[in-house]
From TrEMBL:
A Pfam family recorded for this sequence: Amidohydro_3
Single Gene Ontology MF annotation: hydrolase activity, acting on carbon-nitrogen (but not peptide) bonds, in cyclic amidines
Chloroplast in keyword set: no
Protein name, entry field: Amidohydrolase
Xref: Gene3D superfamilies: Metal-dependent hydrolases
UniProtKB keywords: Hydrolase
Lineage: superkingdom: Bacteria
Listed SUPFAM superfamilies: Metallo-dependent hydrolases
Organism from which the protein derives: Alkalihalobacillus alcalophilus ATCC 27647 = CGMCC 1.3604
Keyword Kinase part of the UniProt annotation: no
Database matches in InterPro entries: Amidohydro_3, Metal_Hydrolase, Metallo-hydrolase_Enzymes
Domain Amidohydrolase: 42-283
Length: 333
């Protein structure tokens, strides 16, 4: 079986692969978040590059040709991670396409200076801007500010960690769909996780899914998040026509000590958790992993890679069940 390469639509390669003596410990999330903040203060640009390259090596080994990673921008990391990842982007351009999304992980309330730093990151050449709807008291205001900053820079991607708490009272997805529709942003906007959608009333969920489908935005699910929260209603979103993407999310950091970078394994995990077991459902997951983003720049860059993956397997069911590394990766010229 032959494929053009897998797509990883959400990662955090700026802060993965913990550098000794740092190591994962299974403490509550707020404690691990504080450890991450402390690490961001200390990490040098070169250390960030080493960690990011380790992550990309794993992904490339398993046939990934496109990676969209969030890159933290705040007074802790300042712009070191953006500087590091821009260099990594160039160093890897002949092997995979790496898109960078300057990310407000900590919120505007904790660090108001982040607004200025995001604008600087845009000037440096990132491909998108991202926010986190649960990090500020007013998620709607956070959404508006991030979109406003992104539109100033005419960026390709506007992305949000959306309703990641999973609480029904922390539900900003309907507003994000509304704004996306009003501003006609369509596939530029991606809602990541959308955990609260799994826990709201079914009627509310159905109305929201219809609004998301109408908006033209995409939804990215990261199956490893099941360790701490509900996955979103992937099947219902897909049935409504919402474009679905998959991401590896964190890789060997304070939030996830595991992760191979093999997108087939993440697809397999989604199949287990959400019961994508029928042949058409398995083929749907494979199509999501293989699908290129709706962006002419990225499509052109991917075509220049001309990557060809070959597997000694006869069916997509076997491919997802075994999640092997490609037998070979070769350029087709």
């Amino acid at each position: 079986m032959n494929y053009s390469g897998w797509k990883n639509y959400h990662a955090h390669i700026d802060k993965g692969f913990l550098i000794p003596p740092n190591s994962y410990q299974d403490e509550p999330a707020p404690i691990r978040a504080e450890w991450t903040r402390n690490a961001k203060v200390l990490l040098s640009k070169e250390e960030i590059k080493v960690a990011a390259s380790l992550a990309l090596e794993k992904m490339h080994k398993y046939g990934t040709t496109y990676v969209r990673t969030h890159v933290d921008v705040d007074p802790l990391f300042e712009l070191r991670a953006v500087e590091a990842l821009l260099e990594v982007q160039q160093e890897w351009k002949d092997r995979l396409v790496l898109d960078l999304v300057a990310f407000n992980q900590e919120g505007f309330e904790r660090f108001p200076e982040t607004e200025v730093l995001l604008r600087e990151a845009i000037k440096m050449g990132v491909n998108g801007v991202g926010g986190h709807t649960s990090m500020d008291q007013d998620g709607k205001e956070h959404i508006d500010k991030i979109i406003g900053i992104a539109e100033e820079g005419n960026l390709d991607w506007i992305e949000f960690h959306t309703d990641e708490t999973g609480r029904a009272d922390d539900f900003n997805l309907p507003y994000l769909a509304k704004v996306t529709t009003e501003r006609e942003l369509k596939h530029k906007v991606t809602a990541i996780h959308c955990c609260s959608l799994a826990n709201v009333d079914d009627k509310v969920a159905l109305d929201t899914i219809e609004a998301v489908a109408k908006s033209g935005m995409t939804v990215t699910t990261c199956p490893t998040a099941i360790a701490t929260r509900s996955l979103t209603r992937v099947k219902e979103l897909a049935k409504a026509g919402v474009p679905i993407q998959l991401g590896s999310d964190n890789l060997r950091d304070y939030f996830n000590p595991l992760g191979s970078g093999n997108m087939l394994q993440y697809g397999q995990l989604l199949a287990y958790v959400s019961r994508f077991y029928e042949l058409k459902e398995i083929e749907q997951i494979i199509s999501w992993l293989n699908a290129e983003p709706e962006n002419e720049r990225v499509k052109q860059q991917l075509s220049q890679l001309a990557i060809h993956l070959s597997y000694p397997i006869k069916t997509n069911t076997d491919l997802l069940a075994e999640a092997p590394a490609p037998q070979l990766i070769e350029a087709v010229r």
